[in-house]
Design a protein that fits this description.
There is one protein chain. With about 160 residues, the protein is α/β, with parallel strands linked by helices. It has one domain: 3-Layer(aba) Sandwich (Rossmann fold). It has seven helices and five strands; from the N terminus they run βααβααβααββα. It has a five-stranded parallel β-sheet. α1 crosses α2 and α5 crosses α6. The longest helix has 13 residues.
């Protein structure tokens, strides 16, 4: 079992003012506890996340983000020429999707990954189980208590 982690989750995790911050914290909590197997992300997501942090004036969070990826041993999948070409062909046929999202969905299909931590419902139309929005509602009372202590605030 495995799970991909999308840009939207990383961003919401790093921005405490994001409306989905607590959902991102909760889903990452379960990912790090191994609930969904090995966590993966793709190199394009790293690019997107760092650019998003810069454009939203959160550049100071980039080192925290990189440290988090490395410390938690999140496996980074690099897009090769074959995957890039397949993603570009798909993007031409589906220009409303993002290149990163397309690449993630192709990787998920090829590796048999069925879960993605994301706030983007587009992935559910690609056959993935999307974990993100309203994720805090899936936590047990004990998990809520543990996260409350860790965050130092009420998350109900």
């Amino acid at each position: 079992m495995a799970i991909l982690i999308d840009t939207s989750i990383y961003y919401a995790l790093l921005d405490p003012d994001d409306e989905y911050h607590l959902d991102a914290v909760a889903v990452i909590y379960h990912i790090l506890k191994g609930r969904y197997g090995r966590p993966y992300t793709i190199d394009y997501v790293l690019v997107e996340t760092t650019l998003l942090l810069k454009t939203r004036r959160l550049s100071h969070k980039i080192s925290l983000f990189i440290e988090f990826i490395q410390k938690q041993q999140i496996k980074i999948i690099c897009v090769d020429d074959s995957l890039l070409n397949e993603s570009l062909e798909t993007l031409v046929k589906n220009p409303r999707a993002s290149l990163t999202d397309i690449a993630q969905s192709i990787i998920a299909r090829k590796l048999g990954i069925k879960y993605i931590a994301s706030l983007d419902d587009w992935f559910s139309r690609q056959g993935l189980v999307v974990l993100g929005k309203n994720y805090t509602s899936t936590l047990s009372r004990e998990e809520l208590s543990e996260l409350r202590k860790y965050l130092g605030k009420d998350i109900d």
